Amino acid sequence: MEVRVKNIVKEFARFPALENVSLDIRSGELIALLGPSGSGKTTLLRLIAGLETPTTGQIFFGDEDASQKTVQQRNIGFVFQHYALFRHMTVLENVSFGLKVRSGDRRPPADEIRRRALELLDLVQLSGLETRYPAQLSGGQRQRVALARAMAVEPNVLLLDEPFGALDAQVRRELRKWLRDIHDHTGHTTVFVTHDQEEALELADRVVVMSKGKIEQVGTADEIYDTPASPFVYGFIGESNVLPVRIEGGEIWFEDRPIGVKAEGHADGDGRLYFRPHDIEMLEGCGGCLAGIVTASRRVAGTRHVEVSTGASNASVEIELPIDRGNVDGSRLAFRPKKWTLFR
Amino acid sequence: MARDADSLNVQSATTESPLARRALIGLTLVFLLLVLVLPLIAVFTEALRKGVPAFFEALGDAETFSAIRLTLIVAGIAVPLNLVFGIAASWAIAKFEFKGKAFLTTLIDLPFSVSPVISGLVFVLLFGSHSVLGPILKSYNIQILFAVPGLVLATVFVTFPFVARELIPLMQEQGTADEEAALSLGASGWQTFLYVTLPNIKWGLLYGVLLCNARAMGEFGAVSVVSGHIRGMTNTMPLQVEILYNEYNFVAAFAVATLLALLALVTLVLKTLLELRFSDAISSGRRH
Q1: Which residues are bridge partners to A304 per DSSP?
Q2: What value of ipTM does the predicted structure carry?
Q3: What pLDDT does B2 receive?
Q4: CB-side exposure of A173: number of CA atoms within 13 Å?
Q5: Residue A274: beta bridge partners?
Q6: How many whole angstroms from its chain centre is CA A134?
Q7: What residue ranges do the domains of chain B occupy?
Q8: Among candidates A76, A82, A86 on the partner chain, residue whose Cβ is nearest the Cβ of B184
Q9: Which of A73, A248, B205, B281 has the highest CB neighbour number within 10 Å of its CB?
Q10: Which residues of B touch A133 (CB under 8 A)?
Q11: How far lies A4's CA from each of A7, A8, A64, B132, B162, in Å?
């Protein structure tokens, strides 16, 4: 089911948590809400769920206005950060809970509930553990029970709050791939919150980058990474350098010299130049470049990350060099960004 | 590592020397013996001094019997009331944010900090014949003071904090995620309480009810003020003990006292058993 968030404002005791947020989530989409803590991503998720009510604004499930509906009426599946499994119930009882509490004719017969719960446990690869209690499971297993429990009610939309936050790196990567598979298999519209950009970019069809209660950008992993829409996104996603620059006659100047980059179509004035450490070209000699002394370097997998102190202000810039350039500590390097973005 | 430390007889920083340890344990034991065990033994020996038949005869006395019955009635009303109030209050405090929450928490502790005599006097001032409410109650022929309602009110007041005090920290620690999970799965508020909240707090609740009951049956001060000491009518067990004692009827006084002491012992044993048997469940209820 498609979900539309329209002009949502949410204030907690006068403190704005979300400022006029709008978002269209397509049916069957896997979408990530990504942002630092305090960006309002969890609040947005809880608003969609109906666990919070918006100060103003509306939320549509399909064509229906869900804003006035209670969390029960919205029929969502919510997976909590710390799973919130019912500790006194077995795995099977946890998964069947949503069906068991249904009233009258909406409740399937007992053997049907059991069959469906077992089916879901099979889907999340927990067959054979149905009589265990949550305390007897590992973190990854609890996470999967929580997901099975949420899916048991055949939700309109599946909402996950930091689904892998409490797991160690190894399990995290496994579950990530596994969640993608489950999503492709079941086709639920799924929204998950994360502060881990790698997770968001790898897993989601589209990523919603949030900061300070606002949506900064919505896009695919490529769009977010290659064409960041704001300085925040540029700085938050991946590694980046930022230099205070000046535009004069279609040329970008850093301090007292042009850096050899044309900025046609940009008006004269001050700006900030953003570029990735690997989007540079090295130069021999300098007819317009950034140049500086290497102050530190470290080996990261297949490349060398080098810190260069450049200009009169000793602005620190990090660039990536191929390993075969050898040790460059203390030497002088000249380079210029190949791909960059100018924010005014 | 641990074995190495043992074999080298290395002490950890927080371990006292054997002498200090023995001195501390000995001091505690002597103190407990003097203050707790000896008086308890005294109660039982006094009660049985004239033999077992005299003991049971004393208990079979009509007034004493009525006192036992009254105590059971009062506790039987006050404890369930405080069970409900306690759950409601701790639910409100632990799961919601509202103005005056700190004040409410303090208010719940009030009965602990007020002398029981004052607690009783409050009800005399409220419902006595010279109070504002007195004439109104009289015109409707409602008897509160010197009757069961007054005893129940005083007992409820004094024992109010027990259940709430036990549940508030427990509920606060458990947070609201479980309840939210139940609601998101379509459960109604009542179903959520019944299937999720209640099982999560049941051991804490039982614990609180046990303590509440022990205090409700043993309460003296507040009850004494509102009771009026009408023999065979408004005397609870602790009051009956006092009356019998003042009449130098020691065997009877101590016989009733043994019942109260037994109640305390049973409570202690149950509490310990609960902790032993369900320590995992209790602590996991807190942790998780």
Answers
A1: A299, A321
A2: 0.83
A3: 46
A4: 3
A5: A242, A341
A6: 28
A7: 1-47, 51-277
A8: A76
A9: B205
A10: none
A11: 10, 10, 10, 61, 49
Residue B44 DSSP one-character state: H
| Token couple for B88 | 């409601």
**In chain B, what residues touch A71 (CB-CB under 8 Å)?**
180, 183-184
**CB A281 within 8 Å of CB A298:** no
Percent of residues in chain B assigned helix, strand, coil, to nearest 5 = 80, 0, 20
Q: Is A55 helix (H, G, I), strand (E, B) or coil?
A: coil
* AA letter at A116: R
> Out of A71, A86, A134, whose CB is closest to B184?
A71
> What CATH number labels B51-277?
1.10.3720.10
> What percent of chain B is predicted at pLDDT more than 90?
41
Measured from the Cβ of residue A217, the count of other Cβ atoms closer than 10 Å reads 21
**How close B178 comes to chain A (CA, Å)?**
5
Q: What is the DSSP string of A233-267?
A: HHHHSS--EEEEEEEETTEEEETTEEEEEE-TTPP
Phi/psi at B36 (5° precision): -110, -55
- The partner residue sitting opposite B180, judged by closest CB among A75, A84, A87, is A84
Supply the pLDDT for residue B28. Answer: 94
Chain A residue closest in CA terms to B186: A72
Give the integer Cα–Cα distance in Å for B283 and A120.
Answer: 31
pTM summary value: 0.80
Q: Does A72 touch chain B (CB under 8 A)?
A: yes
Distance CA B286, CA B235 (A): 41
Average pLDDT value for residue range B93-115 = 88
SS3 at position B186 = coil
